[in-house]
């Protein structure tokens, strides 16, 4: 029997098995898009969008990945207060996350001059 995420899931699986009802557990994945709105922190005349972050929450990271996928021409760049790790137990820093997902980033106050021109 697979490892279930909750006791309730395990009990449902046991009931299905007891009644000889075939099933697959978490056998499919469905992609979906939630419609939402994004308001950038700073829009520059050169087309650069600056998103300024002190704390970079997981929901924010997911949102920005979705934005990049759905708006590949958006020149979104991050200005971080510090190059923190994404979670307490992670070795991945904000900069690592940006590099992985193809975002330009900097640590305030060192905003590159060519971003601002």
In what range is the share of β-strand residues?
A: 15-25%
The CATH architecture name of the largest domain reads 3-Layer(aba) Sandwich
The domain tally reads: 2
Radius of gyration equals 21 Å
Q: What are the segments in which pLDDT stays under 50 over at least 5 consecutive residues?
A: none
**Which sequence of strands runs across the widest sheet?**
1-2-3-4
CATH class of the largest domain: Alpha Beta
The CATH topology of the largest domain is what? Restriction Endonuclease
Mean pLDDT: 94
Main sheet, how many strands, which sense, barrel? 4 strands, mixed
What percent of residues adopt helix (DSSP H or I)?
25-40%
Secondary structure tally, helices: 4
The secondary structure category is alpha/beta
The arrangement of helices and strands along the chain is: HEEHEHEH
Cα(first) to Cα(last) distance is: 60 Å
Query: What characteristic shape results from the CA principal axes?
Result: elongated
Number of strands: 4
């Amino acid at each position: 029997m697979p490892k279930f995420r909750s006791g309730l899931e395990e009990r449902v699986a046991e009931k299905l098995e007891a009644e000889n009802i075939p099933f697959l557990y978490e056998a499919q994945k469905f992609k979906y898009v939630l419609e939402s709105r994004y308001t950038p922190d700073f829009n520059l005349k050169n087309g650069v969008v600056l998103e300024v972050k002190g704390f970079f929450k997981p929901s924010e990271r997911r949102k920005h990945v979705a934005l990049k996928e759905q708006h590949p021409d958006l020149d979104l760049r991050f200005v971080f207060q510090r190059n923190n790790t994404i979670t307490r137990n992670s070795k991945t820093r904000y900069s690592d996350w940006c590099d992985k997902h193809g975002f330009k980033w900097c640590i305030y106050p060192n905003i590159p001059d060519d971003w601002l021109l």
